[in-house]
């Protein structure tokens, strides 16, 4: 992990706006005129949609504008271009919650990254509709809340969940094989801040039991897809996908076995991109900078 | 290509039958009792369906049963086990026809393999509904028949095509980006003998314009699928698939560009498996031996 | 994981011997004549070396020869063909020891597989030359022995290690980023029973700091290699390899970051193959059945 | 291929220079102040070496500086920053020569891309030390010069080759499995303008017969590497690599078979990157923009 790049405080500015002449010049001049040194700059133009996307990261060490005044300065920069923007700092420590059901592989993989300090985050809260994985969280002194869900209590439990997320000041949510569908209302509270892992190569095999469907169809490759959750099931903007080869020799359980490793990796890569502020969403598609 | 394995005449026996005790022993004893040396043996049991599959290849050099009597001998072997079987010889030279429309990349890739003698086949006939690619075939003295298709003449043109296939003694057909749908009637004449390439990772994006659909969905990986053609469009048994990574930076034309190389490779690998008699079909799934 | 295949007790026989007529017939007849049902059979002939390899697995449920007499029966089967063989049972529970230094990712990944009962093994012992990872093992009540190594005490520490391996009845060893070189003497005690992960695509970049070397060379793909340890450093028979794409944008730390996920996956796949008794070694090469 | 992006004339400027504040601002302001619309902009900082790399492409349609004056304008831009730079136009049609020996697959793949107009180039000349592939070139009316090479005439033949390259106004050379080593003197005439394909995953298996070496080592993955040729054999800056999985079942001839498809693809991708002016070389490493 590029610690060397993030040790010193840097600012990360994400921009999207209608494409027009002079955008890169305006932003890069803003940085250099204020004594900022650009560490990373990526831009993309969606020529069909006429939309410009940019991610620029610069060193704050000698930057002329102090962090607390930066929002206002960027407002002025953004206005004439009609930019939508987000500002982050490299030393922000986002607070993540993980939702799980009974499968342990994604959760344990996330835990191992927390233990090894691979990610610069806090993970204060795990929520589940089952108690099965509670011991793993307790081992690490992470709060594990069990909120069983039935058709009757679903709305109420979501209320509980929202209260917990608030209490724990959660910035974004990871669904690590959480087998429940969140309500549209809930999802809209966390736009582009709920990262899901689906165990198929979307848009193939959405919904339940994708490994069974993949086996029945006789595909030679299976996949996993990580995406932001929207109101439409398994149809949100895709952040990352990957695949693994299978053969006629793989029974459904073998697909499950091979898929597990794929799921945890694809999810981890998506979280990592999200943490680095490298994902911009436009409609149902993402720009994922390198 | 394993020429060393195929230079000497060998027999290739493909078997499928209800799974039962003693199948491998019966077949392998049949070979060794007749002085055959097994070059290759692969078997697979579909435990769910209770079906046994086998491919065994043995040297004919000192084999006690001459090639012309082998069919009868295998009939006797097969009967008590209720085997379905096919017998081939390594020095058979299958006769292939290629159907194309306007895209040249798959056809030219096939031509290059013919020119370099990578495959031990004859390619006496190319059929197209357009004349665009005719010069490439003429360069190689391969017959190129143009049969334009309209809603009115489709049935009649298929008649023509069948006559040509008969006249040229064609064993199997390759649809190398042939943009026409063959009639159910036609397809049934060539069961598991029409190999198609579809430019998506099936079952995602069947039908027309898959690259446009993939781009609209914002997938991070595109694929190509080669399958035997059945009456259901893009739903036949899959022989081979592969994928390539794409990004937000790839416009539809870039997907087309990246996809072309994928299509020609996946199709070539499927043809190669078919030629080596390594593909067995059961329902809508394949067993593809290594 | 194919639990359904292994739940019932089955025998697994691994064979290698000079290639000759009648091998498959002899083995498969031995199984079926004794009322065994073959679950899985794979064979390979190394035509250059003239060596035959086979793995056959059959159901013991109605098998005529009881498990305790099977060794003798196979001895008789093997003798005329000069077979080398190993017999295992699907319900054997191998005892694994893991050696680590300071990197946690492979160890934690192994722990997560133990926790989720992905593998049917015992992991009673972890050995390290550093104490850093001890807390992770203690969390799971796994014995973690710290044996610091210096040029002076190396031979003595290996003595200690051997005593521990004996005391804990260890069947095989996994070097999960253990940064020490084992003595030739030690290695010879565990032929094809020490699985290492090396963080490069061998034979490129053997030895120390392969990510630095890969970065300096400017490769576009990095890899990881799992192999059995032999007296020659990083030169033992390869079990599994995989790769991941990198770009000019990846600094050495980014290679380390991307490589970590690769290492843990490649190592886990190699262990899984080893556990399934699917790896046969011949000279410096492996036959890894599917 | 992104024809839509290149149909209209655009300028492509490649820059490398010591990293310093204000580089992106200076270049992007130069473009926008002269009414240029940036189509594509990518930058990279090698923080270790302290070197800045940039590729910027802009529309020439309404650009204030005419193409014939652009060199001078960029000279002024470049001077204060000590930039090394290259200027290209999207409608330049580079002239490529291909060197081959006896293997046809890479040459035929290049021919098929020429025939389908996938690349916007001229291919007026093929040079070989053998006559074997001459008929394929003649089919397409491409000049094919046979210059047999022996230890005695090597220097003289290189003289001939240089004369031909001059006569045909060749911009860059592709070694499409050309089995001869070019002299240091020759190589220095075409810095970063000779693209080679080597049939291994470099730095593993440089030199002759890499498939034999890969087989002997028992690797589970083979690769191909395309790089610019330097005086050191198989050690030049890598442009592109890719790999394919192999097994114990693959004899050397099978590696050759699988490798052929890999070689032609990796070479084609490297040529495509070179044609798009997306490759910058620094020391022995490349920056390959997306």
Can you walk me through this structure?
Four copies of one chain form a homotetramer. The first copy, chain A, is of the alpha/beta class and 290 residues long. Chain A has two domains: 3-89, ACT domain (Alpha-Beta Plaits, 2-Layer Sandwich); 95-288, Formyl transferase, N-terminal domain (Rossmann fold, 3-Layer(aba) Sandwich), CATH 3.40.50.170. In chain A, 33% of the residues lie in helices and 29% in strands. The first copy, chain A, is built from nine helices and 13 strands. Chain A has helices at 3-6, 23-33, 67-78, 105-115, 134-139, 154-167, 184-189, 210-217, 252-275; strands spanning 10-18, 38-46, 51-59, 84-89, 95-100, 122-128, 143-146, 172-175, 194-198, 221-228, 238-245, 279-282, 285-288. In chain A, the strands form three sheets. Chain A has a seven-stranded mixed β-sheet with strand order 7-6-5-8-9-10-11, sandwiched between helices. In chain A, a hairpin with a 4-residue loop joins strand 2 (38-46) and strand 3 (51-59). In chain A, helix 4 packs parallel to helix 9 and helix 8 (210-217) crosses helix 9.
């Amino acid at each position: 992990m590029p610690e060397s790049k993030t040790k010193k405080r840097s600012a990360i500015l994400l921009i999207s706006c209608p494409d027009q002449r002079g955008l890169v010049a305006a932003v890069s001049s803003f940085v250099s005129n204020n004594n900022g040194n650009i560490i990373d700059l990526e831009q993309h133009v969606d020529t069909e949609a006429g939309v410009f996307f940019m991610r620029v990261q610069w060193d704050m060490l000698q930057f002329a504008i102090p962090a607390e005044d930066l929002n206002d300065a960027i407002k002025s920069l953004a206005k004439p271009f009609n930019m939508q923007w987000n500002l982050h700092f490299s030393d922000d420590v986002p607070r993540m919650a993980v939702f799980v059901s009974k499968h342990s592989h994604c959760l344990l993989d996330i835990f191992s990254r927390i233990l090894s300090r691979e990610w610069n985050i806090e993970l204060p809260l795990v929520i589940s509709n089952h108690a099965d994985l509670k011991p793993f969280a307790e081992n690490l002194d992470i709060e594990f809340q069990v909120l069983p869900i039935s058709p009757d209590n679903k709305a109420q439990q979501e209320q509980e969940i929202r209260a917990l997320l608030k209490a724990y000041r959660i910035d974004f949510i990871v669904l690590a094989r959480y087998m429940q569908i969140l309500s549209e209302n809930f999802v809209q509270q966390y736009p582009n801040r709920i990262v899901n892992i689906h165990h198929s190569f979307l848009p193939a095999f959405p919904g339940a039991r994708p490994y069974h469907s993949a086996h029945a169809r006789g595909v030679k490759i299976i996949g996993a897809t990580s995406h932001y959750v929207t109101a439409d099931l398994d149809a949100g903007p895709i952040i990352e996908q990957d695949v693994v080869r299978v053969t006629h020799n793989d029974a459904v359980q073998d697909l499950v076995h091979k898929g597990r490793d794929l799921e945890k990796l694809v999810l981890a890569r998506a979280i990592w991109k999200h943490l680095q502020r490298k994902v911009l969403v436009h409609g149902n598609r993402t720009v994922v900078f390198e």
